[in-house]
C-alpha cells in the first residue's frame, strides 16, 4: 500500500543551499534510499546521492534523516508515519560537495597518521599464530564499514571545527585501540593517542556508539579501554614507578611523519 | 594559454537549526539532571544532619556515616574507633570515606557521560549542537583529573569491605546474637549492589585483564576479565540502582533511629 511522503531535502553545494520540498511515492517495504532514488528518477534528476551496496555494508549512503545520522539504505520508511515530513540533510561535520554528498577525505588523512600494524621483526609472514580469545576484541572493531557516522556525530568536531587538527575522531581512536590490543603488534601508540590523536577530547558521551550501524560498542570497548591504557602510560604514578623498577619503560611509537 | 581555475573551497552545509531531530531528545538529560539533583540535595542534608544515623538496638548504621570516626559518633557506631575528638558541623562524621565515594562517582565513566549531557550539555543529546564556543574536553585542569578514577576505585574497594562489615553487624539482634529484620535485608541488598557497581567499573575491567595483549597467556585473568566485562555491560544500571538503594538504606535507618518507624523483625 503506497502513499505520498513529504520530503524536505537539502540541495546546494559548497555550503550554500536550502531545504527543497518534494512529494514522493512510497511503497511497502522500502527504505529511505529507495525513495531518494525514485525522487532522482522522477523529479530531481540532478540530485546528488552517494550510494553503493544498498545492504548496509559499504558505508556510502550516510546522511542525516530527521536530524539523526543514519544510513539511508538501512532506514525503513515504516519507522516514520505517512503524515510525517522527512527532513534529509548531508552529514554536518564534513564539507558538502553537492546536495547529500559530502567530502569525507578528512577521515582518510587521519587514517594515514596512525602507525600501521607492527609485528616483531623476527616473526616471518605466516609464522605467527593467535588464539581466538586474543583477537576477539580486535575483531569487533573490524566490523567497521567506515560510514563515518560516528565521526559526523561526535560533538568534538561537529560543533567545534577548530578541533579537527587535534582530534582524530572515534573511528580512528578505535583503530588505535584495535592495534594496541592486537597480540602480534609491538608498537606503543598510547602517547600519541593522547597527544596527537586527541583522546583526551573525548568526554565519553557515547554518541559514536549510539549511531554505529554495526552496533560496535565503540565507547565501552575501544575508547574507555584506550583511555585506561593512556592513564597507565601518562598519569599513573604507581605504573610509572613499576616500569622504572622493572626497567620495562615504554618506547613510544611516533605518529606517521608528514601526516599533518 | 588558458589559466587553471581553482575549485571553490568546500564548506560544511550551512544549517542554522540547532538540530533537526524531531524526537523528544531533551527528556533524558532533563530527567537525569532532576534525579541527580534530588539525590545530591538529599545526601547533602543527611551527611550534615548529625542525627538518626545509627540504631543501637539492631546495629544498623547508615552508609552515609560509615566509618563514623568522629568523637561525637554515638556509642557502637564507630567500628574503626574515634580518630579525632570532635569536628566542626561543616565536616561530616564520615568525611574519610565520603571524599572517596564522591570522587569515585564523579570520575566514573558512566556518571561523566550523564552529567556532561545533563548539566554541561556537551552535548545534551547526539546531533544536537552544544552551547559552548570552545571545547577542550578532558585535556586540561580540572577535567584532566578524571584520569584519577582508578585510584578512587581502589579506595571504593576498601569502603565496600567496610560496608560489608556494617551489613554483617546488622544481622545481630538486641542481645548481640544472630537476628535480622527488614533493615538488615535492606543494608545487605545495598551492599551487594554496591559491590556490583564497584566491580563493574571500567577501571576494574582494565586492571583485572583489559590491559593485557595476550589473554591466552593469562587464562585466570582472562576469565576474571570476562566476568567483569559481563558486569560492566550493566554499569549504568548499577550506578542508578545503587543511588536508589543508598537513599533507601539511609532513609530506613533514619526513620527507625528517629522512632518514626519500628523495624519489623523476622528473628531476634
Topology:
The complex is a heterodimer of chains A (260) and B (268).
Chain A: E1 3-13, E2 16-26, H1 32-42, E3 62-65, E4 68-71, E5 85-89, E6 96-98, E7 101-102, H2 105-113, H3 132-141, H4 149-153, H5 155-158, H6 170-180, H7 190-195, H8 207-211, H9 218-235, H10 237-245
Parallel strand pairs in A: 1-5
Antiparallel strand pairs in A: 1-2, 3-4, 3-5, 6-7
Chain B: H1 27-49, E1 54-55, E2 60-61, H2 95-106, H3 109-120, H4 149-169, E3 180-181, H5 182-199, H6 202-210, H7 219-232, H8 235-257, E4 265-267
Antiparallel strand pairs in B: 1-2, 3-4
Provide a descriptive summary of the structure in words.
- The complex is a heterodimer of chains A (260) and B (268).
- Chain A is an alpha+beta fold and 260 residues long.
- Chain A folds into 2 domains: 3-101, Ubiquitin-like (UB roll); 105-245, Fumarate Reductase Iron-sulfur Protein, Chain B, domain 2 (Orthogonal Bundle), CATH 1.10.1060.
- Chain A has helices at residues 32-42, 105-113, 132-141, 149-153, 155-158, 170-180, 190-195, 207-211, 218-235, 237-245; strands spanning 3-13, 16-26, 62-65, 68-71, 85-89, 96-98, 101-102.
- In chain A, helix 3 (132-141) packs antiparallel against helix 6 (170-180) and helix 6 crosses helix 9.
- Chain B is mainly alpha-helical.
- Chain B has one domain (27-129, 139-267).
- Chain B is 49% helix and 3% strand.
- In chain B, the strands form 2 sheets. Chain B has a two-stranded antiparallel ribbon. In chain B, strands 3-4 form a two-stranded antiparallel ribbon.
- In chain B, helix 1 packs across helix 3 (109-120), helix 5 runs antiparallel to helix 8 and helix 6 (202-210) packs antiparallel against helix 7 (219-232).
- Chain B starts with 26 loop residues before the first helix and ends with a strand.
- At the A-B interface, helix 5, helix 8 and helix 9 of A face helix 3 and helix 6 of B.
